[in-house]
Design a protein that fits this description.
Layout lengths: L10 E6 L7 E4 L4 E14 L11 E15 L11 H10 L8 E7 L4 E12 L11 E8 L3 E5 L2
Antiparallel strand pairs: 1-2, 1-5, 3-4, 4-7, 5-6, 6-7, 6-8
Length: 152
Amino acid sequence: MAADQFNARDIRFEIENFASPGTWQAIGPKGIETFEPGFEYESAETTTFGSNGQAESQTMQIGKTLQLEGKRLRDKATGAIDAGQAMVEAQAERLGDDSLVGFRFAHKDDTTWVVWAQARFELGGQGGGINEKGKWAVTVTRSGPSTTAAKV
């Protein structure tokens, strides 16, 4: 089958519940408007006199991030914010070893998740203007390798 385009809105995101390891809480899809993967590379310079003036280097480290942006959600009756956003915000307050928790994402039709077993969360813009809905954003940074897990 030939590769085809897919709807970005069909990507799903989940955070591992730090109070109950192995359980997952959805982040969105309601409230999420965009996601943007990021990549960071560290390289080692390997140029020598034998390189004859041609630069040489090797990739030594790869970092990955995923930024989610959208609207802040809250229950009109109770004032409680969305459960996924609340869990992300609570996780973003944790420090040291506790600052790392699982994060996973996949297209709704995929059979496996991409899993970052160790990830940290940094909150982004939470404001808004006079004629706007409240904003919400987080950047998730992978710590260690990616793995996969079957969707069940």
